[in-house]
From TrEMBL:
Residues 32-143 form the SET domain. SMART domains: SET. This is SET domain-containing protein. It comes from Chlorobaculum thiosulfatiphilum (Chlorobium limicola f.sp. thiosulfatophilum). SUPFAM superfamilies: SET domain (SSF82199).
Amino acid sequence: MTPALFFAATIIFAAGVAAGTLATVFMRKKTPKVSRGAVLIDSSKVAGRGAFALKAIKKGDIVERCPALEVTDKDIGGELLNYVFYGSAEDRRLIAMGYGMMFNHSSTPNVAYYREDGPTGAELVIYALRNIAEGEEMYYNYGDDWWTTRGETGE
Ligand SMILES: C[S@@+](CC[C@H](N)C(=O)[O-])C[C@H]1O[C@@H](n2cnc3c(N)ncnc32)[C@H](O)[C@@H]1O
């Protein structure tokens, strides 16, 4: 490669990096928070991200129906273990899509869930245990086992 060609390639590469950096900063400012239906994903006070009510939700209302995929426990490992639900047998796990895996835990939960097996497959249905105000974070109770098996405690 001649010095002139090397110089031109360096300039083009640097311009690409600068354009990419600017685009990232610009896009980040413009990108709205993620939301769908009644649920907004935002920063949680208890852990990382959490699920928040985009509007007032009445006791008993369905917050989200999550299409779910049942797999064996061998399919699940690492950090994913902290995100899946129990399945139809001890060695089965349920992967809830949508925002189902983004709800944090509380021992005084405002939502709960049940499984429904319809003609198109399993769903995890999340519903309100009480009236929930717009903007409130929504929590379900992971259960004592969840915390003791990890040697942790949740509020
Ligand atoms: C199903 S995820 C919930 C979404 C998670 N906060 C995130 O940002 O991806 C479970 C993870 O959140 C953490 N978590 C959920 N509720 C919590 C709580 N009340 N206190 C501390 N950590 C919590 C758990 O330790 C676990 O790692």
